[in-house]
């Protein structure tokens, strides 16, 4: 399994999905990533591409033809190729195939670079349109961080701290995984969201239009935690599943369909567009403490 490390952090990445498997802090002995217990949720940090979330009726339209994609797309289930590695970074890439073109008719290359710098892990995405027509896509991260992080603490001892005070609502999710049309209150001029399991009783917290460019996981009972820094991600998901000792902080360039979605991929909320030969970059960092 590909891996890199420095004097503070050691990480491992699976070829399948280019998915992070481990974020270990050598100095404090803490494992920051969820263990992917299949009894609850058997993933660590899937990459979401070429869609984020659910499609209405699990289908979309392009040039009058109907295509089907499952939730979060296919990249997380495909084998990537290691295309570069040195002491501090590793790059994995996925290219379109005959199979992907059957469900997603856009030639592409998706590269993901993991880079270490002291106590910071940087993850950089690069999408290239290798076809001859405009490409439509979404992209997202889904890292699951272990909570409680430190022995002797509980899930409810932790909180999310936003870099700015926020006045935003969460967008409810239907049983089909679609977004409702009206948000419900969540934060009112606040920058702290105490973690409790009830927050996730009806699925993920979906946020739009945040001012914040980072979210930290902290606790009054320990000096240890982490900060996820993100920019150029217009949406954020926060998720936990019943019985799972983790919380996902998910920067997204794209979002699930709403109940009113037309199904036309060119009209999809948050969809990104690339002309032939163009590239799209986005990235986030995880700072350990």
Report on the structure:
The protein is mostly beta strands and 289 residues long. The protein has one domain (3-288): Distorted Sandwich (Beta-galactosidase, Chain A, domain 5). 2% of the residues lie in helices and 47% in strands. The protein is built from one helix and 23 strands. Strands 8-9-10-11-23-19-18-15-16 form a nine-stranded antiparallel sheet, with no helix packed on it. Strand 6 and strand 7 form a beta hairpin. The longest helix has 6 residues, at 98-103. The chain is globular. The chain starts with a strand and ends with a strand.
List the helices and strands and how they pair.
Elements: E1 3-5, E2 9-13, E3 20-25, E4 30-31, E5 47-48, E6 59-62, E7 65-68, E8 81-85, E9 89-95, H1 98-103, E10 108-117, E11 120-129, E12 135-137, E13 139-141, E14 144-146, E15 158-170, E16 184-194, E17 205-208, E18 214-219, E19 222-231, E20 235-239, E21 246-253, E22 272-274, E23 279-288
Antiparallel strand pairs: 1-2, 2-3, 3-4, 5-13, 6-7, 8-9, 9-10, 10-11, 11-23, 12-22, 13-21, 14-21, 15-16, 15-18, 17-20, 18-19, 19-23, 20-21
């Amino acid at each position: 399994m590909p891996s890199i490390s420095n004097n503070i952090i050691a990480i491992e990445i699976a070829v399948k999905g280019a998915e992070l498997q481990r974020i270990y802090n050598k100095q404090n002995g803490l494992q920051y990533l969820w263990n992917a217990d299949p009894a609850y949720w058997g993933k660590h940090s899937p990459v979401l591409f070429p869609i984020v979330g659910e499609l209405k009726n699990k289908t979309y339209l392009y040039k009058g033809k109907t295509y089907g994609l499952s939730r979060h797309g296919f990249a997380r289930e495909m084998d990537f190729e290691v295309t570069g590695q040195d002491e501090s970074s590793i790059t994995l890439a996925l290219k379109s195939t005959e199979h992907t073109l059957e469900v997603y008719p856009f030639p592409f290359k998706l590269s993901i670079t993991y880079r270490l710098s002291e106590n910071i892990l940087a993850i950089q995405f690069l999408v290239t349109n290798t076809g001859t027509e405009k490409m439509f896509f979404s992209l997202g991260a889904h890292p699951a961080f272990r909570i409680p992080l430190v022995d002797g603490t509980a899930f409810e001892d932790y909180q999310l701290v936003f870099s700015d005070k926020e006045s935003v609502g969460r967008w409810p999710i239907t049983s089909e995984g679609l977004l409702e049309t009206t948000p419900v209150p969540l934060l009112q001029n606040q920058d702290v969201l105490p973690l409790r399991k009830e927050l996730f009783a009806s699925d993920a917290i979906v946020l739009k239009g945040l001012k914040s460019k980072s979210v930290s996981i902290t606790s009054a009972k320990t000096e240890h935690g982490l900060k996820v820094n993100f920019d150029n991600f217009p949406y954020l998901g926060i998720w936990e599943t019943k019985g799972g000792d983790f919380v996902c902080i998910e920067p997204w360039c794209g979002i699930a369909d709403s109940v009113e979605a037309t199904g036309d991929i060119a009209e999809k909320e948050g969809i990104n567009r690339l002309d032939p030969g163009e590239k799209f970059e986005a990235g986030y960092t995880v700072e350990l403490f």
